[in-house]
Structures are given as C-alpha cells and as structure tokens.
Amino acid sequence: MSLYVMKFGGSSVGNTERMQRVARRIVEKQDEGHQCVVVVSAMGDTTDELIDQAMLLNPEPPAREMDMLMTTGEQMSMALLSMAIHQLGREAVSFTGWQAGFRTEPVHGKARIMDIIPDRIQAALSQGKIIVVAGFQGMTPDGEITTFGRGGSDTTAVALAAAINADVCEIYTDVDGIYSTDPRVVKCATKLKEISYDEMLELASLGAAVLHPRAVEYAKHNKVRLVVRSSFNNNEGTVVKEEASMEQGVVVSGIAFDKNVARISILGVSDTPGVLAQVFGALAQEGINVDIIVQSGVKNGEADFSFTVSECDRAVAVIESIKGQLPYREVTSEDHLVKVSIVGAGMISHPGVAAQMFDVISKQGVSIKMVSTSEIKTSCVIDGNNLDEVIKALHTAYNLDAEQQVFVGGPQDRR
Amino acid sequence: MSLYVMKFGGSSVGNTERMQRVARRIVEKQDEGHQCVVVVSAMGDTTDELIDQAMLLNPEPPAREMDMLMTTGEQMSMALLSMAIHQLGREAVSFTGWQAGFRTEPVHGKARIMDIIPDRIQAALSQGKIIVVAGFQGMTPDGEITTFGRGGSDTTAVALAAAINADVCEIYTDVDGIYSTDPRVVKCATKLKEISYDEMLELASLGAAVLHPRAVEYAKHNKVRLVVRSSFNNNEGTVVKEEASMEQGVVVSGIAFDKNVARISILGVSDTPGVLAQVFGALAQEGINVDIIVQSGVKNGEADFSFTVSECDRAVAVIESIKGQLPYREVTSEDHLVKVSIVGAGMISHPGVAAQMFDVISKQGVSIKMVSTSEIKTSCVIDGNNLDEVIKALHTAYNLDAEQQVFVGGPQDRR
Question: Domain ACT, which positions (chains A, B) (predicted)?
Fold first, then answer.
C-alpha cells in the first residue's frame, strides 16, 4: 500500500464527463490498494469567468476580495468531485485549503505556504476515505483566506505530499509528460522517462504549462517524487526526481525556447560600484522581469552590458528615465528575438556540448546575439525567424528524435 | 448613528447592474451616518445551477458535500459585492459564515445556529468598514461547513442583528413590503405599514417568499426590529415588530391562502389513548407535513377526525398501511381544496370576526369544509374554484382595499 497525492488540473475536470473519468481513475487507484489524497483545480474556465465578473464591478478589485472570489472555484470542484466518487460507491471527503491545514503568510494573491497541519486529512485517511483538497488556497494565522498565485495547485499537491510523507505525487494533466522539446514544433519530440528537478527547472519554458517551477522547487527541497502524466490515458508519464538515471547516457535532455525576447544593451556606463544594482533595481520596481544578464568586461573605466526582457519598450523607458542618476553613452534594443536553451545534467561531464550548439545554430545561417550558460544549461538568444528549423536541427543533433510521432492535444492546464 | 443589518436576496444581486445598485444603496446608508453590516444571498440562479451540476454527477449527493458546494454561491456574492463597494471608494470586507462567527449544530443542509461570535465583524466595524457576510452558512465546532436550509439568509441577517445588537434589520427584496393579501390576486391589496411578529408568522403563506418564518421567529425571540422593503425603490416598506400599533384600529391585517390543500378524514377510529400520535407519527415518518387537524368529539367510543396535507395520495397510502395497527371504519379524502386565512392581532378583542368571514364566504356560494382558529387567525378550507372571488370579497369586507392599485413585479427571492 502506497500513499498517493494525485493532482488534477482544470482541464482534467472541465466538464461532467471528465469529472467522472477522474473519479473512476481515483477509485481504480484505491482498488489497487493505495491511499489517495486528491488535489483539484477549478473546473475549466471557471477562474476566467470569475475574473470577468469581478472586472465588471471593479477593474482593480482588492486582492483580499479576489482571493475570496477565486477560492470558490476550487471549492466547487472539490465538492463535485467528491460527489462523483460517492456515486461510484466510495467515501470521499473534501477539504478547503484552511480545512486541509494550509497556513500561509498574510499576503493575498500570491501567498507562500508557511506550514501544513494535516490532522484532518490524516484522520480521514485512517478511516479509509478518499480525500479531495481544494488546490491553490490556504489561510493566514488571522483566519484570512489566501491564494498561492500561478502554479498554486501544483504547489498544493507537492507541499501536501511532503507534509503527509506521500510515496508519490502524481500531476495529472492533458499531456503525456515532459517532452524533449515542444511537440507542436518538433513532431518527433521524445517523451522523457525521467528528468531531474534541476533539469525540470531549467526547462521551465517547456514544462511550466504542465508543472509549475515553484512546485518543482518545492519538490526538490522536500525530495518529493513527482510523476507528470495524462488524465486522459494510462501512459507512464515522466518521473521527476533527484537524479535522473545516468545509465541512459543522455547528455542533453531537452530543448526549451522562449519567444518574445528583447535584448537591451547599455553602452558606456561608468564602472562605479552599485551600477548594476541601480539598473536592475529600477526595472524590478516597475515589475519588469529580466532574464539573461551579460557583462563582458570593462574598458577605459566604462562597461557595456546587455540583458533580456519580454517588455522591450517599457524597459527602455525605465533605462532612459534613470539617465540622470546613471550616466551612460547609449542604450540600444532589439525586439522579436527568441532564446533557445539546451538542458541536461550530462553537460557537466561532457565538454563541447555548447560548442556543438553554436555550430548547429550557425549552420542554419542564424547568428547568435547573446550567450548564457549554467552548469546544466546553455542558452542562445537568436533571431526569431528560423526558430523551428533551429530547434529541429538541435533536436536531431543531440539524438532526441523519437522513432514515432507524438500527438499532444487539448488546451494546457493553467494552474 | 445607528447600526443596520441589511439583507439582500438573490434577485436583488442577480446581475452586475443590480449588484452595483445594491452597493450604492449601502454607501448611501453609510453617508447618512450609519454603520452597515450586509448579508447577501447567492446571485440569481446560482444556487439552482450548482444543484444541477451536482445532480449530473450524483442524484443523491452526500449532504456534507452539498454544503461545500452551495456555500460557494454566497461566497461569490459577498466578494463581488465588496468589490462593487470598493469601486465606490469605500472600504468593505467580506466574511464567510465561519469567519463571521456562525457556530452551528453538526447537521448538514439544515443546521441551526448555536452561537455567533462576531469578534471580527465588530473589529472591522470599529475601523469604519462596511461588512459583507455570506448568508445561509456557518461552521460546526469541528470545523465542518454547514448551511441553514430554506430561509437561511433571512435567518443569518436576523441572528446577526441580535448578536451585534443592531438597531434595525432591513430585509431588501423585490417587493415593497408585506401586503394585506397577494397583489397578484387582489389588485387593490394594501401594503402594511407595520405588522406584529405573530401576525407575520400566521401570514406565512403570504410572506414566506419575502421573509422566512424561521427568521421571523428568531426576530420575535430576540426582539429584532425588522423592515421588509424593496431593493429597487426607496419606498418605506413594512415594519415587523413586537406589537403593531393598536391605534390603527385594524382588526384583520391580512388575508393569506394556500392552494393545493387536501382534506383527509379518518372515520370510526376506536378512541384509545395514543391514536392521534400513531397516525401523525406515521405521516411524519414519511415526511408528510400536516397542517390543520380537527377532531370533533367522540361518539359510542368512536372518533372521526380530519386533517389537511398537500400530498393527498401519499397520505392516504400511509393511513391505509397502518390499518392493521389502527382499526378504523373508513378513510375519505378530497383534493384540490384551498385554505383561506384571515389574520389580525385585533381579532382577540373583536368578537364576530370569524362569523363575518363565514358569512362572506357563504355569500359567494362557497361551502366551508373545515375550520380552524387561533387567537389571531381564522382559517377555512374551501373548494378551490372560487378562490379569487372569495379573497376579493374578504379583502373588501375587512376594509383592506387600497385606494391605489399596487404593482409588484419580478421573481421572488427564494432564500
């Protein structure tokens, strides 16, 4: 007997029929002799519909009241799923976030979990019941309802798995697992059998739609064994764990890409301490996320540095606005670029992997505008026009092509 | 400065525009210098839609999970209404039943309130905030979410008014107040300026759609001053209080009626102790509500008695099923009858009121099949065919006709 946490996203419970399928799936797991704690998201478009209703009344609704509103979505799902399980003759009991013992910091819309007190879940488990927990929500010490923000239901599942010491945390979604690259671009993308937490994190742009990076980090920190699999078939899925088996001899596990990347360069900045902090502090204050930052040395007391953002015009405006405090010669920018990354734990022990990447890209007649590396990842910022060709060439070069074509359908779960 | 509890039913907040109107109304009350605690029902058809969703998954859903599901309706309303109030530049804070301190017995679907601990409401009031509370819901001592059943939001409002010692509890609905009879039948029905709790209770069939009897009882017990008024206009409404002013010289305050009444008579029952208990115990066990019960004496050790129900065939079947234990000669029944009642605290001191009623009814050529009286009410069960004429004649006879015709529109609030 194992203890499973099973998380089902919004599209997996998007209508009555899907809800019934999920209920059967849970009952089958119990039939195999396992204990089941289920985490469920709001059904299909419920969250968007609630947001629309709110916007009609108040375009800037208070965060506290938005949390009150949004948490009803998961509460509806959990109650309906419990009813569907009862219909199959099993006892199920649903818990809201606060009932399940999720204690969070006193922040609305993006609260972090401080503690989980799973007494009620454990009591119900010991009575042989199936537990259904509302994802994405908790309560502050003052009894205020909070939500976890994006990736909240994944995080609920992983944190709960850690708290109750579950054997496995299964993330059910509408794709079969994590792929070597986006199957919509490369038809022969391979489904990965396993992947390490770090690789998964570096592949965020590939995997974020099915498994939120925050949940992966939580899983890594608490050594929770994750399985990403489809709620629509019984295929095996992808195991995310501490160290993927090295026996596979895989150097590169996956190829990720971000579209909508802009490069901004600040040229001729006088090299005084605190310059970088000043620039990126100003950007952070405006809520602009910076991805890659590259500085390539100092010449005559002046430095050039470049970084990437998704919001080109806003970022340039911020840089121009601080010219008074931060003298520089020139700011240049280039929009509509893409970032391509190869990720693999095997890169650490295999020299020349990055060189091969540059070679493959240049053979596609594409010039590389920026490079950034980590121990298990190499990213290149390139022109966006030839993206598909570049990814296909890299996918083949690193032996990732599957023998069979993969079909991935349906909308992505969002939470 | 007075402390108001303002309750808005489902049709009063049925769409964005209505929600905004309610928000303005609350802000106006605050502008007049008052403190406002608002109780709100689920929007329009939300409750029915949730029930429909549940039925698709489980025709007999567990009551606990139904409570989990149903309480989301009020939670959505309260959050949206708070947002609408914020949009008008005021601070509003919403509370679910458990946050508002409603402690109930551990029963699902029809829990009774055991206690209210309004600490959080009082703290927020002292900060000058408008409080919005979800109607119809509470929590057991074990942290289980419960609902109050029909009339739940009215009861929430009244119980809260008692707990925080509010000056007035206003029940906003889609009619102007309590009428002397159903304005859909008698066009010149009068809106009552005031009415006593007892009269209101006896007029249940008239008033139940706008103010649930359970809430009236609660108000009576706790001496909560109630006002029933429209959320669509500023008319004064009807005050429900301990003793309506006697100066008005009103003998009969209102005329109520129930359609779909059946009379069942059990003839020749041997008059042994416990006979009545046996009959009505058996009916209660089948969930059949009995209204009037009349027994008119014993003859030769045998008694005849009659009672009214709404479910004729089922009641007859129950009586026939207990013939083994309870020997009787014959059971007869008559369906499609109506009950007409005149209600008024003034009846106590005015003899002849009932006689006048019988006279008016017989002048309409209608025969009276059963009579039942209380101190402030006389009811007659009659044939249903001439109902409208009988009510109009009684309305005129007791000087209830208004000078102007009344318009009442819109669907009735259900909670």
Answer: 264-343
